[in-house]
Amino acid sequence: MLKKPPKDDKWNSIMIEFDPKDVALAFGLTLFAGLATGIGSALAFFAKRTNTKFLSVALGFSAGVMIYVSMIEIFIKAKDALCEEWGPRGGYWATTLAFFGGIAVIGLIDKLVPSFENPHEIHDTGEMEDAEKAQNFKKLHRMGLFTALAIAIHNFPEGLATFAAALKDPHLGIAIAVAIAIHNIPEGIAVSVPIYYATGSRKKAFTYSFLSGVSEPIGALIGFFVLWKFMNNITFGLLFAGVAGIMVFISLDELLPSAQKYGEHHLSIYGLVGGMAVMAISLLLFV
User: Fold this and answer.
1) Three-state SS across 152-166?
2) Is the separation of the CB atoms in 227 and 167 below 8 Å?
3) DSSP letter at 18?
């Protein structure tokens, strides 16, 4: 857990130290979430067709976990930290601005990715049969590579979100890591399908899918080493509020649309409510 040494008058804020075990656990959870793209790649190879109903519920569940924990837990923790430093009014304003700042950052990243190569356009494993008939393998290969690159870019802030949450509260980090891991499975399919049928190489398709997921723990490490010297209540509060915004955007822009694309509308909503309920119960157990 986080430790708070005595106040430093120079900075007029509480500096935060980290237990190495907590750092290792946070990195491990981030690595697990990122490498779930490999699960999606494996499913693309060994399943003739995706179980779309199950995937719809799972993606809705993941969105429910991320939205609930962002608004009920992460936003509140960020507000408490900032209000401690800047007072109730100033802290609340800072939290709100950082929350929408996180949305703006991930939205800008999303905007910079061309729509026809956007990782949100997830493929069904059944599309392999159609892709196999495609004549323009060079274009198919290019699509797979750009999808891998786009997912890698998106995974940087996701990795930081998972890492920051796990560093603050390991139980919270586990829930978020599982939610993002579920989210990363269809992304692995999106990378491996076009590359496999453009090259005929399972190894190459899996490698690119794997590398797109590795960017998640890399993002966490870069964020940690850049910020850890400056980590205090203010830095933590702003970062956590931004993470909440990032996770809400991912849920509304990626997870729910993908869940509804894969299955019936009501299945994705049932998954959403189920994810919220499970997250609520898990938080209550650790009160």
Assistant:
1) HHHHHHHHHHHHHHH
2) no
3) -
Under the banding of pLDDT at 50, 70 and 90, the label for residue 10 is very low
Q: pLDDT tens digits, residue range 150-173?
A: 777 777 777 887 888 888 788 888
Tokens of 75: 């936003």
Q: Are 218 and 151 in contact (CB under 8 A)?
A: no
For the chain, state the CA radius of gyration. Answer: 20
Give the span between the Cα atoms of 212 and 188, in whole angstroms: 8
176 touches 161 (CB < 8 A) = yes
**Is 61 in contact with 263 (CB distance < 8 Å)?**
no
Contact 125, 43 (CB under 8 A): yes
Tens-place pLDDT, residues 199-254? 778 888 888 888 888 888 888 888 778 777 777 888 889 988 998 998 899 889 88
The residue assigned the tokens 């990363």 is 184
Q: Which residues contact 219 (CB under 8 A, 6 or more apart)?
A: 155, 156, 157, 158, 159, 160, 163
Cβ–Cβ under 8 Å, residues 30 and 158? no
Residue with tokens 């900075």: 11
- Whether 98 shows a pLDDT value over 80: the answer reads yes
3-state secondary structure of 3: strand
Please report which residue ranges of the chain form alpha helices under DSSP H: 20-34, 37-46, 52-68, 75-112, 127-132, 137-168, 170-199, 202-227, 233-250, 256-262, 265-285
Q: How many CB atoms lie within 10 A of CB 9?
A: 7
pLDDT band of 195, cuts 50, 70, 90: confident
The Cα 229–Cα 15 span in angstroms is 9
